[in-house]
TrEMBL record:
Molecular function terms from GO: carbonate dehydratase activity; zinc ion binding
One of the GO BP terms on file: carbon utilization
Keyword line: Lyase, Metal-binding, Zinc
Record-given protein name: carbonic anhydrase
Pfam families: Pro_CA (PF00484)
Note on cofactor: Binds 1 zinc ion per subunit.
Taxon lineage: Bacteria, Bacillati, Bacillota, Clostridia, Lachnospirales
Length: 190
């Protein structure tokens, strides 16, 4: 069952952009985390206006970057913002059952996972992440270009999902890529 979007994808992207502009001008998070909102979301559920798939990097905090409070973002974090079945299932849930109108794959500059894919051949479970990134970046060695290519691959993998395609067609869901610039805090929508 697909729930109707809570706003258009364009409205959600504009809300994210204006939240990032507030973030660039502030020293602390202005998102609403009040007791009243906690009670409201407990009683009425969550209705996030955006699904954010981003890296686990501790410098990348979507709720802060977009000046968001409780219930506004459905955040999925994994090193290198790579996509597998678990992330796809989470995205399908948020888009199909919570009515989120936009999926943002939020990469970032100076990503350690992308750097590892470019400059090393890790072992262990990290290899699952770097192998995915290597599929995205090929022979690219420029850090920024590689980060963008990695975002674009994740966007393509999400859009390949039949459930996501159905929600895009029926409800206007959009899947977009973006880059968070760690050096200055700005978000660039690709």
């Amino acid at each position: 069952m697909i729930h109707h979007m809570i706003m258009t994808a364009d409205e959600a992207i504009e809300k994210l952009k204006s939240g990032n502009m507030r973030y660039l001008l502030m020293n602390s998070n202005s998102g609403n985390v009040s007791a009243a909102l906690r009670k409201f979301t407990y009683e009425h559920g969550q209705h996030p206006h955006a699904i954010i798939v981003t890296c686990s990097d501790s410098r990348v905090i979507p709720e802060t970057i977009f000046s968001a409070g409780l219930g506004e973002l459905f955040v999925i974090r994994v090193a290198g913002n790579v996509i597998d079945d678990h992330q796809l299932g989470s995205i399908e849930y948020a888009a199909g059952h919570l009515g989120s109108p936009v999926v943002v794959v939020l990469g970032h500059t100076h990503c350690g996972a992308v750097d590892a894919a470019i400059n090393s051949d890790p072992e262990g479970y990290i290899k699952f992440i770097t192998d995915e990134i290597k599929l995205a970046i090929g022979d690219e060695t420029d850090d920024y270009k590689a980060c963008c290519l990695n975002v674009k691959r994740s966007v393509a993998l999400i859009e390949h999902s039949l459930d996501i395609q159905q929600i895009e067609e029926q409800e206007g869901l959009r899947v977009v890529g973006a880059m968070y610039h760690i050096e200055d805090g700005s978000v660039e929508f690709l």
